[in-house]
């Protein structure tokens, strides 16, 4: 058996088209949705990512402004800039690209962003809202994974979902979103005793560890849905996920590729959160 591919690029394109429609409707009412992106320092990967985010935004009619600051910027200056953006009625979403330079307290920076503009969904208030099922902003990566499951019409109710990884931006929120859909959820991590025993029972596996070959074909139940959140480089320097794609695709029912899977969906969900933020200010 060979798994069907869940094409993140194709789905992201559909999501962007939907966002473009909502943007147009807001613009017709005189509101220009606006995302402010802050990049501190010269990390080459971050430079590429933020350029993508700005280009995606402009493609869907959202305004995006990129603010670049030197790595030596003082934390106080950054906090002041965020507070000014919080007050700016013309700005609907604020994204501070991570990682920040080491001399900055990431937690403090994120907590300074107004929860109403926290389109990354990283603020404690956003995490709390997700936990208790209140309106807020969901982190873009797990939100994108959920969209990918929806795109194949997958009904999570009563299914066993195994999340590998317990980070605050992917594993934990992913588990809560799956639970919100009535899945039975197991969270596995580096201290899990017998990962294979867990994944073999899974109807859905989300791999979000940040290490190659965390999930191999012998660990997957035939027909399972496999979502690969990993972003790693292989020995040839090629982008690869956490899943041994070539092996796992022989047993899984559905699988997401890397690249072209969760990555493009993460970017698309940032646009969804931004248009949502703009709509909420005018509801
Ligand atoms: N405040 C903040 N929010 C973030 O969402 C955030 C961040 N900081 N810091 C860095 C990480 C990383 N991240 C990616 C999103 C999409 C792709 C993506 O679209 N990847 C393409 C491939 C890109 C390539 O070829 O390198 C793909 O998987 O097909 C990659 C990486 C968001 N991040």
TrEMBL record:
<dbReference type="GO" id="GO:0004488">
    <property type="term" value="F:methylenetetrahydrofolate dehydrogenase (NADP+) activity"/>
</dbReference>
<feature type="domain" description="Tetrahydrofolate dehydrogenase/cyclohydrolase catalytic">
    <location>
        <begin position="6"/>
        <end position="120"/>
    </location>
</feature>
<dbReference type="InterPro" id="IPR046346">
    <property type="entry name" value="Aminoacid_DH-like_N_sf"/>
</dbReference>
<dbReference type="Pfam" id="PF00763">
    <property type="entry name" value="THF_DHG_CYH"/>
</dbReference>
<feature type="binding site">
    <location>
        <begin position="165"/>
        <end position="167"/>
    </location>
    <ligand>
        <name>NADP(+)</name>
    </ligand>
</feature>
<dbReference type="GO" id="GO:0009086">
    <property type="term" value="P:methionine biosynthetic process"/>
</dbReference>
<keyword id="KW-0368">Histidine biosynthesis</keyword>
<keyword id="KW-0511">Multifunctional enzyme</keyword>
<dbReference type="GO" id="GO:0004477">
    <property type="term" value="F:methenyltetrahydrofolate cyclohydrolase activity"/>
</dbReference>
<keyword id="KW-0658">Purine biosynthesis</keyword>
<comment type="similarity">
    <text>Belongs to the tetrahydrofolate dehydrogenase/cyclohydrolase family.</text>
</comment>
<dbReference type="InterPro" id="IPR020867">
    <property type="entry name" value="THF_DH/CycHdrlase_CS"/>
</dbReference>
<dbReference type="InterPro" id="IPR020631">
    <property type="entry name" value="THF_DH/CycHdrlase_NAD-bd_dom"/>
</dbReference>
<keyword id="KW-0028">Amino-acid biosynthesis</keyword>
<comment type="subunit">
    <text>Homodimer.</text>
</comment>
<protein>
    <recommendedName>
        <fullName>Bifunctional protein FolD</fullName>
        <ecNumber>1.5.1.5</ecNumber>
        <ecNumber>3.5.4.9</ecNumber>
    </recommendedName>
</protein>
<feature type="domain" description="Tetrahydrofolate dehydrogenase/cyclohydrolase NAD(P)-binding">
    <location>
        <begin position="139"/>
        <end position="280"/>
    </location>
</feature>
<keyword id="KW-0378">Hydrolase</keyword>
<comment type="pathway">
    <text>One-carbon metabolism; tetrahydrofolate interconversion.</text>
</comment>
<dbReference type="InterPro" id="IPR020630">
    <property type="entry name" value="THF_DH/CycHdrlase_cat_dom"/>
</dbReference>
<keyword id="KW-0560">Oxidoreductase</keyword>
<dbReference type="InterPro" id="IPR036291">
    <property type="entry name" value="NAD(P)-bd_dom_sf"/>
</dbReference>
<dbReference type="GO" id="GO:0035999">
    <property type="term" value="P:tetrahydrofolate interconversion"/>
</dbReference>
<dbReference type="InterPro" id="IPR000672">
    <property type="entry name" value="THF_DH/CycHdrlase"/>
</dbReference>
<keyword id="KW-0521">NADP</keyword>
<dbReference type="GO" id="GO:0000105">
    <property type="term" value="P:L-histidine biosynthetic process"/>
</dbReference>
<dbReference type="GO" id="GO:0005829">
    <property type="term" value="C:cytosol"/>
</dbReference>
<dbReference type="GO" id="GO:0006164">
    <property type="term" value="P:purine nucleotide biosynthetic process"/>
</dbReference>
<dbReference type="Pfam" id="PF02882">
    <property type="entry name" value="THF_DHG_CYH_C"/>
</dbReference>
<keyword id="KW-0554">One-carbon metabolism</keyword>
<comment type="function">
    <text>Catalyzes the oxidation of 5,10-methylenetetrahydrofolate to 5,10-methenyltetrahydrofolate and then the hydrolysis of 5,10-methenyltetrahydrofolate to 10-formyltetrahydrofolate.</text>
</comment>
<keyword id="KW-0486">Methionine biosynthesis</keyword>
């Amino acid at each position: 058996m060979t798994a069907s591919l869940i094409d993140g690029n194709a789905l992201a394109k559909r999501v962007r088209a939907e966002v473009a429609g909502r943007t147009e409707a807001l613009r017709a009412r005189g509101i220009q949705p606006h995302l402010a992106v802050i990049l501190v320092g010269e990390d080459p990967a971050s430079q590429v990512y933020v350029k993508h985010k700005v280009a995606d935004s402009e493609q869907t009619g959202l305004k995006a402004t990129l603010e670049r600051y030197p790595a030596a910027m003082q934390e106080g200056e950054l906090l002041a800039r965020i507070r000014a953006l919080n007050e700016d009625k013309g700005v609907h979403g604020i994204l501070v690209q991570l990682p920040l330079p080491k001399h900055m307290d990431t937690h403090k920076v994120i907590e300074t962003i107004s929860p109403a503009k926290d389109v990354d969904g990283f603020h404690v208030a956003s995490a709390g809202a997700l936990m208790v099922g209140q309106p807020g902003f969901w982190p873009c990566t797990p939100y994108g994974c959920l969209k990918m499951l929806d795109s194949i019409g997958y009904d999570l109710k009563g299914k066993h979902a195994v999340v590998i990884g317990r980070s605050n931006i992917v594993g934990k929120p992913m588990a809560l979103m799956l639970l919100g859909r009535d899945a039975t959820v197991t969270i596995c991590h580096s201290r899990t005793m017998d990962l294979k025993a867990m994944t073999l029972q899974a109807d859905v596996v989300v791999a979000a560890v940040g290490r190659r070959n965390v999930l191999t074909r012998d660990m997957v139940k035939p027909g399972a849905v496999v979502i690969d959140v990993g972003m790693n480089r292989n020995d040839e320097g090629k982008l690869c996920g956490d899943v041994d794609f070539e092996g796992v695709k022989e047993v899984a029912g559905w699988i997401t590729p890397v690249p072209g899977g969760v990555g493009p969906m993460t970017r698309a969900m940032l646009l969804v959160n931004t248009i949502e933020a703009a709509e909420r200010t005018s509801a």
